[in-house]
Amino acid sequence: MILHHYHLELEVSGTDRQNLAITLEDHRLDLEDHLGDETSLAEQVQAGHVRIGLTMKEPIAGFESDIALLSSFLHQVLRGLEVEESVTDPPDPTKVRAEKILGRLGETIRIPLRVEVDEGRLIIDPDADDLGYLESRWHDLPLWVQNGMRIKYPRLRRL
């Protein structure tokens, strides 16, 4: 069985609370179709904190475009997490694809994450970027991603 996990968490402050909530009235995000009985996305925005965690049997095709849309109306880098897991017993990290999706001003980029097993549990840390991937694709990354990664990983400052 393959499961798809999605996580998005962000703080919304100041006038962005009202402005983004109004914007969401005109734009339907794919995420909203899967929220079920949870508080609507617009209500979460107005409350100042968006927290979405979903596990699905089918992928959400528009997750990345949802992050792009939200980021185009906010002045912060958004970070979503998408994990595709082929469920096995015991857990096998080679059967898991985990990516962080960063969004800024409508632009998105996917960065693979390292997956590890600890005491029989899969560990996916949204800050455990695949440095080999970053180094191999460095010149293809947008400047805003390069700058952030140089701050986060001093070893990348040489690139």
Largest sheet properties = 6 strands, antiparallel
- Average pLDDT, all residues: 91
Task: Give start-end ranges of low-pLDDT stretches.
Answer: none
Helix content, binned percent: 25-40%
Broad structural category? alpha+beta
* Number of helical elements: 5
Terminal CA distance: 40 Å
C-alpha-based Rg, rounded? 17 Å
Strand sequence of the main sheet, in spatial order? 2-1-3-4-5-6
> Strand-residue fraction?
35-45%
List keywords for this structure.
about 160 residues; single chain; 6-stranded antiparallel β-sheet; alpha+beta
Protein architecture, described:
It contains five helices and six strands, in the order βααβαββββαα. Strands 2-1-3-4-5-6 form a six-stranded antiparallel β-sheet. The chain is α+β, with helices and mostly antiparallel strands and 159 residues long.
Question: What's this, in brief?
Answer:
The protein has 5 helices and 6 strands. It is α+β, with helices and mostly antiparallel strands and 159 residues long. The protein has a 6-stranded antiparallel sheet with strand order 2-1-3-4-5-6.
Topology:
Elements (H helix, E strand, L loop, with lengths): L1 E10 L3 H12 L14 H7 L1 E8 L6 H10 L5 E9 L9 E9 L2 E12 L2 E9 L1 H6 L6 H10 L7
Antiparallel strand pairs: 1-2, 1-3, 3-4, 4-5, 5-6
Helix pairs in contact: 1-2
